[in-house]
Amino acid sequence: MNKVDGLHHLAITTADMKSQIAFFTEILGMELVALYWMHGVENTWHGFLRLNDESAIAFVCHPDIAKIPVKMGQTHAGNPGANCAAGTMQHVALSVKNHEELLAMRDRLRAHGVPVMGPMNHGMCVSMYFAGPENLSLELSYSEKPINQQAWIDPEVVELAGISAEELARFKKPADFADSKGEVPQPDIATAPGPHMTNYPPGAYEASMRLPDSVTWSAVESEPPVNVKA
Prior knowledge:
Layout lengths: L8 E6 L2 H11 L3 E7 L7 E8 L2 E7 L30 E4 L3 H13 L5 E5 L4 E7 L3 E7 L6 H4 L2 H6 L4 H8 L31 H6 L3 H4 L14
Parallel strand pairs: 1-4, 5-8
Antiparallel strand pairs: 2-3, 3-4, 6-7, 7-8
């Protein structure tokens, strides 16, 4: 069974939180639902723009982000078809319900002076493309029905990716996993194959990962910054 059932939030770094909030609220019509000091991270803000009650686009802002050089084709793709470094965000595709709403969003974007390419009919979805602040590559899309695996997994690309027939079968229908109700212990950090998180101060990652689960549960602030009375 697939226990991952949607997007909770996609976090994007920003050197200009206000500009990103203004774009996603005033131009795309999303609501700002959270803006607070990021829990457990020094001198960093977190902002959340609502997609629905369970999903958001989130921004992470620290003063040093403005000092990191932007190199198109490396740190940023710049458009939905260009290259950027492995593991970085190439573009963000946001969903709308249907063609009518897609055209309504195109009107909204163009009315705010944002050039839009599309719609384009990709078969599996219909999409249009535009830019956001700080060289974000953005897309709005809708699909009329779920993606058909048999039609949209190209044997030529499967071969180029080095995926065998046995691997493809597993990828298309991952094996069920019998969980242990949260009782599987942390693997040994020194020998675990990972992947591992990086860019921590020396020793901090290892120390954090060796904390008991009972400690991490309450390791950060859980109360909202504003006391809202019921």
